[in-house]
Amino acid sequence: MRGIAYQEDYSSNGTISGGNTYHDPLADTTACARDVPLMTQLRTNTIRVYAVDPTANHDQCMQMLSDAGIYVVADLGEPQNSINRDSPQWNQEIYSRYTGVVDNLMKYSNTLGFFAGNEVTNMPNNTEASAFVKAAVRDVKAYIVQKKYRPIGVGYATNDDDLRSDLADYFNCGDAASSIDFWGYNIYSWCGTSSYKDSHYQERTEEFSSYNVPVFFAEYGCNTQQPRKFDEVVALYGTDMTKVWSGGIVYMYYQETNDYGLVSIGSDDQATKLPDFTALSSQIAKVTPSGVAMASYSPTNSPQPCPTQERVWSANTTLPPSPNNAVCDCMVKSLNCTARSDIDDDAITTNFDYLCNPANGDYCSGILANGSTGVYGAYSMCNSKERLAWAFNAFFMDQTRNNPQNTNPCDFKGAARKQTPESAQTCRSVISQAGDSGTGSITSAPSPASTSSGGGSVSSSTGAASVLAIPMFSFGMLRMAGYITIAALVGAGLVLL
Q: 315-340 burial string, b = 16+ CB within 10 Å, else e?
């Protein structure tokens, strides 16, 4: 893999400059026509894109890339709809976004794989977020199988810090259905003049020598000394590392305020090569890595053991439930009090703040999710309005039984409304399994529909509600395409692009 990160106005940690929108690089045919020839000068065979529009047409850019022999690894999230490390959720809104990207890109033969997350866990106080990302890995992999798409990998990209071992073990341990198919490592430890040993490349290589899925540098290229020399390229594609690593992706193509660019785009929309481009071109021309022939690929490594939950690592191996809009639709239809369809994001946040504060009562147990304890409400995977509808109803039922002085417990300043509950035959089992508290496990449910519909459903918001979080109150505790065809058998080495 000789790769380049290719996304304008987008930082590697999932933030963007200039607002909440992002520029889809695979939908900009003018930019692709300008940039693909420059990428080929760097012998590029892979690009990484961090956010694509699942509703956009990517035919022209993907064809240009294909004609140039370039594959695409795509992150599934986008800044306003992905798993948030500070208030992690795995719900219908995020699931729809991720599977939408899969649907959009699977039609292209040069789609190489998907990242379900990028540096989501980056400190000891947010390790529980990894349980939600691993649930995303599980469900996106299941979706690909369900849709009968060609085999393709779903992985994760991590940063280089003291949690590296726990993270690598956690996403690799357990059954293959919920573990990653490849591991991306964002590493910036080779700065300026360094060496295989001093940069800790040797240490990392030894650590991953027993890993049983393909590993590669999902980002690399320290810029503390400029212009960058890219001396690490010779090491990365040399004999010491190719027995474990499958190449890497240079960060990044566009020059931004962070000074990682290979080219600068002028006001005339033309690209100018920067010194980093010249240095990378010189170094990449020196390497001739030899990979493993598919016919000779017979991996023997085993999955890693799961990390022990302790002070530093808190993510539970019990994962959040899979999003299922049919279950959520059943739940909403069964309620006596629900959220109004036109409720805005501010009202959702305000009412969550009140209803899910345990000081005000127990109204949210059916919609809460705790990645540390491994305890998840049956409806924690529903969208924001559906979860709020559950909380509204829990409050309504409690007040009706215990506080007759409250003559209008289903109002919340116009955010809620009463309805006549429905109980379709297909929904009765779901409601029974979840129980009155919503804390039961739903093991048998209707198949998810493509969209939620019906008189009792609550449509999802088109605004920021997609990432609105319930307050975190404590309730107690191929080439690479070729490797995918044997994803269940992957081992330490990966066939190199």
A: bbeebbbbbbbbbbbbbbbbbebbbb
